[in-house]
């Protein structure tokens, strides 16, 4: 299963998430610049459990060096596919977690998950002399947080059947649950030597444990100031809707999300409505002055009646500002 996108729009620009991705890419380019010596780069800055647990090695390093490795390892990657996979997962799930926690709390949360995932790896393989690198543990924490915060979200997922690529919208709790189960199975069975499976498992669990705690910590004033700047002025242009109807009615009812500025100025949106195996795409014009709770009527876009006519599609206007008032 390969995720393409999720269906939860974020209310703010994920500046911290984007910054983390940028730093990972820059560090990876730095690794590549070392050429054949890149393995030494990973050995120097990666996390090697034996350097922390075996006394004959650990005595040669300071406490600050050991603490630094718990952070530095999560910004290193072993190859192009490694960093591509990690950054794509972070891109999909990180923005919504940052949107809920706030920018500064999200940064601390991300780093804390990475450190705790590293500790789980050290406990699971304390005498390893191989450098552990990758943001997977921290990203697993983000995915664990998403699992709790948005379980009913949908994840558009590519599932290749032999050579045919098929796309399905899978509930987030199912997608992430399957992902966690696979990590646990691989960790318990040591399916692939050299992969820190227990770090993935530990990161996911600690992400679930930490996100309720971080959600209760008050935001600092600087975070409020940054959020006021990063607040999105527009909602996503393309929105996927799943309208519902009463059994005896041909009319469909859905929700269209816009921002306060779009409510005042008006907007034009592309609405994608899954219709069996077919995707129906419409252009919807939201006129200026549409207040939350108002409804747009799209004539003839509902279900077919027995007499050949069609019902209507009603879109209720709602403001896309779920986290604006959260602390």
Automatic annotation (TrEMBL):
UniProt keyword annotations, A-Z: Hydrolase, Membrane, Transmembrane, Transmembrane helix
A cellular component term, taken from the record's GO annotations: membrane
Name this protein carries in UniProt: Membrane associated serine protease, rhomboid family
Keyword hit for Transmembrane: yes
Domain of life: Bacteria
Lineage, opening ranks: Bacteria, Pseudomonadati, Thermodesulfobacteriota, Desulfobacteria, Desulfobacterales
Chaperone DnaJ C-terminal domain sequence ranges: 256-319
Pfam families referenced in this protein's UniProt entry, alphabetically: DnaJ_C, Rhomboid
GO BP annotations listed: protein folding
Mitochondrion keyword on record: no
Organism, as annotated: Desulfatibacillum alkenivorans DSM 16219
Domain Peptidase S54 rhomboid: 69-214
GO molecular function, one term: serine-type endopeptidase activity
């Amino acid at each position: 299963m390969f995720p393409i996108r999720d269906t939860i729009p974020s209310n703010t620009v994920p500046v911290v998430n984007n910054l983390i991705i940028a730093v990972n890419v820059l560090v990876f380019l730095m690794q590549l610049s070392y050429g054949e010596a890149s393995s030494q780069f990973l050995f120097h800055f990666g996390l090697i459990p034996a350097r922390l647990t075996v006394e004959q090695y650990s005595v040669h390093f300071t406490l600050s060096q050991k603490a630094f490795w718990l952070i530095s390892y999560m910004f290193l990657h072993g190859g192009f596919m490694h960093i591509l996979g990690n950054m794509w997962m972070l891109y999909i799930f990180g923005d919504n977690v940052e949107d809920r926690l706030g920018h500064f709390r999200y940064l601390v949360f991300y780093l804390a998950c990475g450190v705790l995932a590293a500790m789980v790896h050290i406990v699971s393989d304390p005498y390893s002399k191989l450098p552990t690198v990758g943001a997977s543990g921290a990203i697993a924490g983000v995915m664990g947080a998403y699992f709790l915060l948005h379980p009913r979200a949908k994840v558009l997922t590519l599932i290749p059947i032999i050579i045919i690529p098929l796309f399905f919208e899978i509930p987030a709790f199912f997608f992430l649950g399957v992902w966690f189960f696979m990590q646990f199975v691989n960790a318990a069975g040591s399916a692939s030597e050299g992969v820190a499976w227990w770090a993935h498992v530990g990161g996911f669990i600690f992400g679930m444990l930490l996100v309720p705690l971080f959600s209760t910590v008050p935001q600092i004033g600087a975070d409020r100031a940054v959020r006021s700047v990063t607040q999105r002025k527009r909602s996503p242009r393309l929105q996927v809707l799943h309208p519902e109807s009463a059994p005896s009615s041909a009319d469909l009812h859905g929700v269209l999300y816009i921002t306060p500025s779009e409510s005042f100025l008006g907007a034009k949106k592309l609405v994608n409505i899954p219709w069996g195996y077919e995707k129906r795409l419409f252009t919807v014009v939201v006129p200026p002055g549409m207040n939350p709770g108002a409804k747009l009527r799209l004539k003839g876009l509902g279900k077919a009646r027995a007499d050949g006519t069609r019902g209507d599609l009603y879109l209720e206007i709602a403001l896309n500002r779920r986290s604006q008032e959260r602390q």
